[in-house]
Specification:
It is built from 4 helices and no strands. By secondary structure, it is mostly helical. It is elongated, with a radius of gyration of 13 Å.
Length: about 80
């Protein structure tokens, strides 16, 4: 899902704040479960959109590794 259409500056600001908050929440949970997050995953998270975050949050409880969590295709 692409970034939503942002019609006003306020919409963009609100979306950016929400996106940043969700990214920070994911970092917190990843560090709690896996420890240090490698740079390649930091880059992926820092450039993610809301749909990416939704997928990773959904996989977080079942993932045994970061590779599994960030896989292009979900584990079978």
């Amino acid at each position: 899902m692409p970034r939503p259409e942002l019609k006003t500056f306020a919409d963009g600001l609100q979306y950016g704040m929400m996106l940043g908050s969700q990214r920070n929440r994911l970092y917190f949970l990843l560090r709690k479960k896996f420890g240090k997050v490698p740079k390649r995953y930091e880059n992926q998270i820092d450039n993610s959109e809301m749909d990416d975050l939704d997928i990773w949050f959904d996989r977080l409880l079942d993932a045994r590794t970061l590779n599994e969590l960030f896989a292009e295709k979900p584990p079978a």
